[in-house]
Amino acid sequence: RAGGTAEIDFLVEQGEKIIPLEVKAGRHAHSRSLSSYGKMYSPDRLVRTTLLNLKADGLMHNIPLYALNLL
After folding, report:
1. pTM, to two decimals
2. Angle (nearest 5°) at CA 36 between 31 and 40
């Protein structure tokens, strides 16, 4: 993030692709760092894991913590 600090929790390698993964412990799904990463590097998808249900919204994919093996 410009002018601040931003971090991605994990970078997952799948073949030749790198998938950014942000882990959220609760139900708050705000992913500013992940969005900043997406703008800077244009990955095929952005993934976060939370307690929320499975959902895909454009490039952003939410995977529940219990289903992280689906990644």
Report:
1. 0.82
2. 150
